[in-house]
């Protein structure tokens, strides 16, 4: 299992999905993790209540980039309400409040980050893009998101 998780992170770090600026974005929010130096901008395009498109760009460690990439694939096509559920669930996952075996059917590739909870300094790396996207979905896009 561990090996599989590592593969997902390596793959998404090497070939991040939706890694581009979104020209016609409805909103964009910048996120920083000063502890590690991770820095991303998340772009969102809505169609009514649905996240029609979500992209990101920036730089950071493998965990932060892979997390942003997997997030973009998970949230695309979801409603804002569904996205909120994923924000909650992912936060629980990386802080160790969710058992890896629980809800595995809905977590899919997110399970790759279940090991992060064993490394407290990495929790902020994995959570950065999610906090940033959450602020964007909630319309709180006036100031950058910082994990500090
Ligand atoms: Zn990092």
Protein topology:
Elements: H1 2-14, E1 27-33, E2 38-47, E3 50-59, H2 62-75, H3 80-94, H4 104-107, H5 120-137, E4 145-146
Parallel strand pairs: 1-4
Antiparallel strand pairs: 1-2, 2-3
Helix pairs in contact: 1-2, 2-5, 3-5
Outline the structure in words.
- The protein has 148 residues and is of the alpha+beta class.
- The chain has a single domain (2-141), classed as Sufe protein. Chain: A, CATH 3.90.1010.
- The chain has helices at 2-14, 62-75, 80-94, 104-107, 120-137; strands spanning 27-33, 38-47, 50-59, 145-146.
- It has a four-stranded mixed sheet, with helices on one face.
- A hairpin with a 4-residue loop joins strand 1 and strand 2.
- The N and C termini lie far apart (32 Å).
- The mean pLDDT is 91.
- Zinc ion (ZN) is lined by residues 33, 36, 38, 60-61, 63-64, 125.
- The site of zinc ion has 8 residues, from helix 2.
* DSSP E strands, number: 4
Bound ions, cofactors and other small molecules, one mention each: zinc ion
**N- and C-termini, Cα separation:** 32 Å
Q: Give the C-level CATH assignment.
A: Alpha Beta
Spatial extent as radius of gyration: 14 Å
Q: Can you tell me the CATH topology?
A: Sufe protein. Chain: A
In percent terms, what proportion of residues is strand?
A: 15-25%
Give the overall average pLDDT.
91
């Amino acid at each position: 299992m561990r090996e599989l998780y590592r593969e997902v992170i390596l793959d998404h770090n090497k070939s991040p999905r939706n890694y581009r600026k979104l020209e016609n974005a409805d909103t964009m929010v910048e996120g920083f993790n000063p502890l590690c130096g991770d820095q991303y901008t998340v772009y969102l395009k809505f169609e009514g209540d649905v996240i029609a498109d979500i992209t990101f760009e920036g730089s950071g460690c493998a965990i932060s980039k892979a997390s942003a990439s997997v997030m973009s694939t998970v949230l695309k096509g979801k409603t804002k309400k569904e996205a909120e559920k994923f924000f909650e669930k992912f936060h629980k996952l990386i802080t160790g409040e969710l058992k890896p075996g629980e809800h595995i059917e809905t977590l899919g590739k997110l399970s790759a980050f279940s090991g992060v909870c064993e490394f407290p300094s990495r929790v902020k790396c994995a959570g950065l893009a999610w906090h940033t996207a959450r602020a964007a979905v909630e319309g709180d896009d006036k100031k950058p998101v910082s994990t500090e």
